[in-house]
Amino acid sequence: MYKKILLIILFVCIGVLEAYDKNDKLEILIMGKASKYIKWKDDNSKNFTITILNNPYENLFEETFSNKKINKKPIKIKYINDVDELNTTNVLYIPISDKKNLPKILKKIKNKDILTVSKIKGFAQRGGIMQIYFLTQKVKLKINLNKSLKNNLKISSSLLKISDVVNRGKK
Amino acid sequence: MKLYYIACILIPLLNIQADDLNDISLEDLLNTETELKADVGSRNGSRNLLETPAPVDVITYKQIEKSGLTSLNDVLRYFVSGFNSPETSVADGTDHVRVFTLRGMGSDQVLVLINGKRLHTSALLNVNGTIGRGSSNVDLDTIAVNSIDKIEILRDGAAAQYGSDAIAGVINIILKGDGHKNNINFHTGIRSKGDGKKVQSDMFITKKLDYDGFVNISLMAQSQEQTQRTGTDVRKNASSKLTHVGIPDAKSFAFVLNSEIPLENTTTLYANGIFNYRDSKSSAFSRVSDEEHPDGFLPIINATILDYSATFGANGELSNGYYWDISNVYGSDTIKFNVSGSYNYDLGTDSPTYFNNGSLIFIQDTINIDIKKSFSNIDLAFGTEYRYENYQIKSGDEASYILSGSQGFAGYRPENETDSSRNNYALYIDSIYHFQNKKISLENALRYENYSDFGDTTNVKLLLTYQFLEELFFRVSTSTGFRAPSLAQSHYSHTSTFGGLVKGTFTPDHPVSQAFGAKDLKAEKSKHFSVGSVYHIGDNFNMMLDYFYTDVDDKIVLSSNLVATNDEQKAVLDAYGVSEARFFTNALNTETQGIDLKINYKYLLKDNSQLDFSFWYNYNKTKIVSYNNKSSTNNANPYEQLDVIENGQPKDSVHFLINYKKNKFDTTLNFNRYGSYQQVIDNQAYKFKAQLTTDLDISYKMTNDIDIAIGGNNIFDVVPNKWNGLVATQEDPFYGYNGIKPYSRYSPFGYSGAYYYIRMSIKF
Fold first, then answer.
1. Structure pTM?
2. What is the maximal distance between C-alpha atoms in chain A?
3. Could you tell me the CATH superfamily of domain B2-763?
4. Were both Cys, which of B117, B489, B614, B738 would link to B657 (CB 3.0–4.6 Å)?
5. ipTM attached to this prediction
6. Is any Cβ of chain A less than 8 angstroms from the Cβ of B16?
């Protein structure tokens, strides 16, 4: 009996150690890792700030980036419910639920040094910079190069190489 | 004690496979396989496969490619335990449109969707003694396999969500969307006996549009030669032309379109279309020689099938956050029958040998409006549906039906002609309420439906899920459901002559049927209950165990051939020139229960190769619990009609699939065990034992874009046992281990034996 109980506890504990929602976690991790391939012009801030608009993932951003650094800076997570609340940030994450507000959001941050990231369909072509999308059970990246240049972001060629690039070189 | 030690060894091995995603590079993250999501079973968006409130399975296009299969029926049979799709022969139209069932239930108790929208059924009504007798099902072989991105199978009653037919489950076929490469494929193969040669080529072309839109086109052409597994024709004066017992000769062409056109605002226009043309030939029993036909003759039944559907729709989001979707799906299936190499005996030397026997047509047009919105703890969806259906029978040439009619398959008569329509509308609402940080969720669905022919019905579904731990998930579902009588069941009629007897199938409102007590058909009513759990460790191990129970009241069956038992019945039969009659009736109440156990395990080896294991066991048992109108089934040969429902399909089945990938090689091995079943002939049940078949596919990547593969299905050439103790005689020559049909037509894996193939795929 004792061993049966131990067996159950063993199963449960091992499971708990490995628990996460993989697709959401992948999306957030890829956003963070891809940011390391990007340079922000004149960025003198102490922290690397990621702002989440209408957070769809509860505390997954904090869990993922806890004690992590991007470009040698500690990561700071900010949550906002309206783009009007946006202050200085390196990254703005826009959830799918804000698709209808996308023109307003992009207008608000036009030409600011902000990397916009979203899963919204057609995001890169609609004026966003980094689109994360799921295809054939893989995560893919689509980058609007023209827009990134306008926002004074320098994206490394190695990131562009593994991404689908739209609006290449039309500054 | 032993279990404990085995577990202590295995658990750490399982755990090693769970990668820490934080520590891997961006390139590797982009190559990581994501979790499978399923849309079916809820109107509130796709859900992780391991967190669905009712059991859902997903078959991906990659798995389909590795199976080497070219028919959707075969794909589902290969992957899904409890999916049954026999390959029957000498059963008229049923030879050409394969029957399929889920969990041992009826073939018309499964709803099929394309991209989440209802697909029309075949115009064919199965009226012979096959699995699925008395029902019409979707013709799955109209869909080119290369057009499919994934197949979602909901194993739960869902009529409260989707309407009629979703009693045993729902199959949702998702067509390839954005992100697939152009490809062209060649496949050819042959049976171990040297017949059944198949040649198929198909291609997939995609064109990207703005904002991740796309237009995809799939084309498929296939030529399938017949197989011949007949036994001996022991009749005196037997024809030298042998009855075709095996899969039919068929040539088919399919075209599939799938497109999404996102506009600049939030609106997306979408369209898909499926077109299939199939020319299929099988035989009736051969006719013995006589004075006029000294060599005897073999009637060939030719079904020309034209099936298409077209979907147009749009979706988008309003400024207040409401998501909307409006669509129209038009579908049509036409089966034209011809018989060649036959005679109408009564026309003597004036008889033609080629007959136009008439045609069957089914049309369905569905309009949907769906609305959904997420609030803080509630996901809400509601909508309305309008559907129009039309069923037609067109008569054949006069020579095909007058007097004894064309041998093999008599033509439809003018009095059989029908052009019957009905419409229905539905209102529905689905909601999900999340409790306690989404650990508990309660989902409910309510659907009201009104049919112009049989009235209205309201159905409800409740689903409760509890995330006990991140990796241990419990689910309970209970619902009511219904299946509307098909237009074919209400309006089909046909008269034919066999063995000198004139037999007729009559509509329930026909005077002949009324004389036997027939009543207007009403809907089948069902009740469902399922309880299950999902356990997973990381990405590499998951296990699902579910119990299900379905109770169906007023199941519609085609009665046995009834003979007159009183003067009134005799007078009516005489008036219509028939000696036996049958009709559709709400005759039975059934109960089906069983379990599904599914285990998936992925093991990454140190040399970077990968082993995937998938084990699936299904047990189902259907029992007739009571009869509503026993007089319609207790004459002629009642035991056969009833036994097929309880024992005609395997009660259990197992699939054990192993995939091994190393370098440029990708090998898939699939073991299939089909449980025993039985068929009744002349009130005697003959048992067919459980069998194990094996499939193998070995592919080699020549370049990044070119794969070649060899493989086989049922590679050890297993065939069912022949009739045990049933001897074919001159008086009864058709069934028997030594007869024209040595195998049961219920065999869940056919009787054509091994099939070996080569295939090549080029991506560009």
1. 0.92
2. 71
3. TonB-dependent receptor, beta-barrel domain (2.40.170.20)
4. B614
5. 0.83
6. no
